Amino acid sequence: MDEGIKTKTRPAKADAKRPADPKPAPGAARLDSAGRSADFFRSVDSAPKAVSVARPRHVQDFALITFAFISVIVLALPELARAFAWPVPIPRDFVIFSADRVNSMLPVRSFILAFFLTYAVFAYGSVLTRSKLAVLFLVKFALACAIIDGAAWLSWRFADAVWPIHFQQFLAGMAGLAIFPHTLISNARLPVDSGVANLRTGKIHEYAVVFIPAAIAAVIAIIVATVYGDEAGYLRSIAILGGMGPGVFLAQQLMTGQLATIGWVRNMISRRRAFAPPVTVLVPAHNEAHQLHETLRAVDVAAARYDGPVRVVVMENCSSDATARLAETTLAECRHLAGWTVDASDIPGKAKALNRGLDLIEDEFVVRIDADTTIGPDAIRIAMRHFANAKVGGVGGLPLPHEGEGLLSKVRAIEVLLRHGFVQVSFGAFGGIFGLPGMFVIYRRAGLDEAGGFTEGMNGEDTDITLAMTSLGWRMVSDPRAKFYTETPDTLAFLREQRTRWFRSLYHVTAHNRTVLFANGSIIGCLVLPFTLLNGARRAMMTPLLIYGVIVFLLFGGVYGHPHFATVVAVVLGMPFVLALTVLIIWRRFDLILILPLYMGFRFLRSYYTLGSTLSLIYPKRREERAFQAPKPRQAPPFTE
Questions:
Q1: Is 86 left (phi over 0), alpha (psi -120 to 50) or beta?
Q2: Would you say 22 and 324 are in contact if contact means Cβ atoms under 8 Å apart?
Q3: Which pLDDT band holds residue 12 (cuts at 50, 70, 90)?
């Protein structure tokens, strides 16, 4: 930014509303080695009281112990029936009918039953509510299994076609994955629908971008399985193919790789034109005195590389440390900003701070940055180029962890490169992005206003506003070239609080935008959001599944057959390991390859926290108590005559 612009537009005095020095809260004087107050990461957003409850860690520990106990009972029940020669023995793994009596049977249904029963026992609600939840789980799953087995019988009886038992069990597992989020969203106390108009409709070209690469991948997988069958079988046996045939593992990776390539090219085309209008950076800050200086200095450096004026608004929110005072001191030292404001509020909540900040902003583009995030020097310049397309409503980037923060930051780097540097880019190929991380994201102000601003009183306000704008027809972009660096939790308590918020937000956001699901044929509502819900259920079940596998292996191996060691390795590690390795090679992060085993273990810790997040949902006694009207103060009321 040249000196003429800076001198002309920067006010003679900073337009700051100076707050009084904060009064230390009880216990706030205890600081760690980094100068952070005790439990600095906790806030009113850690567990929004209307739609969640903070539960101690031992709840999910006891849940896993109880799950192991219930699993043994459920697995033993059919065998006891056979041993005592009951008149009507219970079918093994509760499979009513299977014409394929040659293949061994994996006890998938017993796992789903044990998981559902355990969840109902430890859900947050009255005994009656939890009992109803258990009945709903069991009835839905029993009905799904009856339909699957009935279809298998009809196929065998009238079409002389035998369904492999593995296929029946696969369908039962998928049914369990779908029943879990459906039951949670239908019975927990969650935000009611936002009322934002759903204008996004299905587009043929978006579905074509998905299904054409899928068809190409399937053809290649079939050719490999046919021509190189022996080689593929060997790779499968040693877990290189994820323990599955080319038709599953290879096809999936080929499809995702094609989509990621298309998404990368689409990003290159989207940012080809220079575009640098005035922007305002909005920074919500709660107890961020230990990090805010670096955050604001990074904004100043990025402003120097951006061709338009950059203003900053810091929204200090109920801090017990010197966040506001530090913000003023740091901003006064910045050389490349066109102006700045520090606003202090005693009303808790990040979304409240963001909405209040929007009232102070007049520019057409709003750059939201979390106070523990430092953006790259070119982040604003690169991200803003996408807005040359008037259809673009929001742009996010690549949330890398700060360097030098220990092993967990390296694990986080692998997670980020997989999620945001690969999968998110592939979603962008067909317009499937509905969530941009709020650590750094730029919004078009018109889209923010049309969506009604940030929803308060729930988790995931960043994903919620992105999904709302997407429903209104705005295009969202995730460009990994716009890099920024975020704080990595350095304690298990911090990590648990962070991941519980993140994973719980999936249910808050989905409930708040429930009319998007399977509506108007949109690819978000019909494909991406359902896939995300299924993936969330899979993640919650992953640690219980590991426990279940050990039980089957040690106690019931003679019944179901001991799985081959390579198969165990493949199911637990093979497929994710190969994908992560491929992504690291693409990104040339060879330094992270040695950390991959640690990342594989971290996935189970992540699953543990995911399960805990679902147990923090509230299940009220009465149906009318399930609806929570999440405040959306900037949303215009419905037009009435």
A1: beta
A2: yes
A3: very low
